[in-house]
Amino acid sequence: MQNIAKKHYIDSLTRLNNRLYFERILPELNNKHIAPFSIITIDLNNLKKINDTYSYEKANFFLKMTAEIIKKFSREQDIKARIDGDQFVILMPEVSKREAEQVAKEIIDYFKSNDLPTRLTAGIGVATANRSQYSLYELFRLAEERMYRNKIARDVSHKYKVFSSLEKILEEKAGETRAHARRIEFLSVRLARQLGLSLNQIDELKIAARFHDIGKIIIDDSILNKPGRLTNSEYEVVKTHAKIGYRIVKSIPVLAEVASLVLSHHERWDGKGYPGGLSRDEIPFLARIITIVDTYDVITHERPYKRAASIEFALREVNNCAGSQFDPFLVREFIQLIQKLYDL
């Protein structure tokens, strides 16, 4: 009878725990008040496409392979379950944020480094808390939200395709906008890694960098591509892009945090920016990164109204604005990054 009950909680394909076991064990663990507690959620990308293109057996092979990867990089005492067709969860009692992120990174790196028969990736979300902060139910929802953001950040989410279409329209309106956004994404992520930011922060930064100017989609082409100086009234129109972009990005609920970065990427350290006149630590930390990288990229690339300047000139301009337009700490870190990248 005990063996029958145990079988009831095992996923027959992967031999991990199943959804039924997960739903039974989560309230038990929640009542034990273990701290810290980490949860990793993993969702396979393209599994339906693999199933449709290749075979049911091939999709099952990848599910079993993912289960083995999860077992390889997690501890024996961690609770590992397949909770949906292509979704897995790892419950990690007494595991810190740093330790959980390391496990997540190892799983991501394993997917990247192995020569799989077909392109298979995974969205991954990590959440850690002391029990006074969250119930395990809330912690699981937070990990899931971060997993969906990770999928959007890596261009593998169906929901991302909406933004991809908007990006294409904006590129047609304003020429180099997509290239500009991708350059900002690249440098922002490099700076984030230099600063040791979390996987979730890097995902938020990727999405915000890519879509920071998406609000310009409704601004008239004649203003966006004007070769001369904007009038005051034209500049006021351009400034509306931060609020418009905020509303567009916030239309996807899991991107609420990212929307605040889009809203704030023209705020200034001294409080003279827009749209909210925020200053210093009132400005979201990740938005402060985008502000610096955005300015640097504008200076070093040609626009309808200006020629491109040298990297050295751009770094001097950024440094001169430390403490007025930009966070002085981030300016120092950014200059170090560019100097390393270009061996200056």
From TrEMBL:
Pfam families: GGDEF, HD_5. Coiled coil: none annotated. InterPro entries: Cyclic_di-GMP/3'3'-cGAMP_PDE (IPR052020), GGDEF_dom (IPR000160), HD/PDEase_dom (IPR003607), HD_GYP_dom (IPR037522), Nucleotide_cyclase (IPR029787), Rev_trsase/Diguanyl_cyclase (IPR043128). Residues 155-344 form the HD-GYP domain. SUPFAM superfamilies: HD-domain/PDEase-like, Nucleotide cyclase. It comes from the Bacteria. SMART domains: GGDEF (SM00267), HDc (SM00471). Gene3D superfamilies: 3.30.70.270, Hypothetical protein af1432 (1.10.3210.10). This is Diguanylate cyclase (GGDEF) domain-containing protein. PANTHER family: CYCLIC DI-GMP PHOSPHODIESTERASE TM_0186, CYCLIC DI-GMP PHOSPHODIESTERASE TM_0186-RELATED. Residues 35-165 form the GGDEF domain. It comes from Halanaerobium salsuginis.
